[in-house]
Amino acid sequence: MCRLLAYSGTPLFLEDLLIRPEGSLVSQSMAAREARTVVNGDGCGLGWYGERAEPGLYRGILPAWSDANLTSLCRQIRSKLFLAHVRAATSGGVSTSNCHPFAHGRQLFMHNGQIGDYALVRRRVEAMIPDALYPSRKGTCDSEAIFLAAIGRGVEADPIAAYGAILAEILALQGRSGEPVRFAAVHSDGARLFAFRWASDGQPPSLYSRVEDGNLLVASEPCGADAAGWQAIPSGSVLEANGTGAIYLRRFDPTALALASAARAA
Fold first, then answer.
1. Strand ranges for 61-98 from DSSP E
2. Continuous segment of H or E residues that includes residue 46
3. Is there a catalytic annotation at residue 2?
4. pTM here?
5. Element holding 114 (H helix, E strand)
6. pLDDT class for 258, splitting at 50, 70, 90?
7. CATH number, domain at 103?
8. Which of 2, 44, 99, 223 is an active site residue?
């Protein structure tokens, strides 16, 4: 599984969270503590919001610990909202186009998880991407497909509803598949930030949050010498920061949506 980190708050240099702290994201790429895959060396990426309308994006196939360009960018970029990801590939090969975050307009998305038995449902999942958006499909991994399909469902207006609907449809496509769908993910439009933690088998990847002096930090694993203040985001929920300082924890249950849809179709 991958590792990720997102920040929303007072502008700071990216290295202050991604490189310098004990247990930083870069160190997690070498030795994750709460993942089945200890080494996350199949690429890395950054997405950050600055003074322009659309976010900046950097992705590469080098491991984060040996990517000199990543280190240089983190030392120079100051941002009030950014997403960062180190990858351990579960679907799709090791390529820049499969590295997270994914961007479309002002939207950024990154994911830690899987669509179980993806090879069996891949064609039908990709069919969920609207024709007008399909040229934006550059990679082969399941995460990008989820993102583009959600854009087609109105993610700009309501990310919670969009991702819920897409994951419910994927569950319906899987039928009685024994492999779960797991979704620990972060989405942002530059103002709002959404952190999702859910799995169809009730065992989602780890995801934590910490609020300090009005600044929100979301990470797969706590980072920094002081672990106090970190709280696990509950399974089956989404954390929403609306850009005004307010933070909400909401229920997120695509399984219920899938069951309701099946009942209506029966």
1. 78-86
2. strand 44-49
3. yes
4. 0.94
5. strand 107-115
6. low
7. 3.60.20.10
8. 2
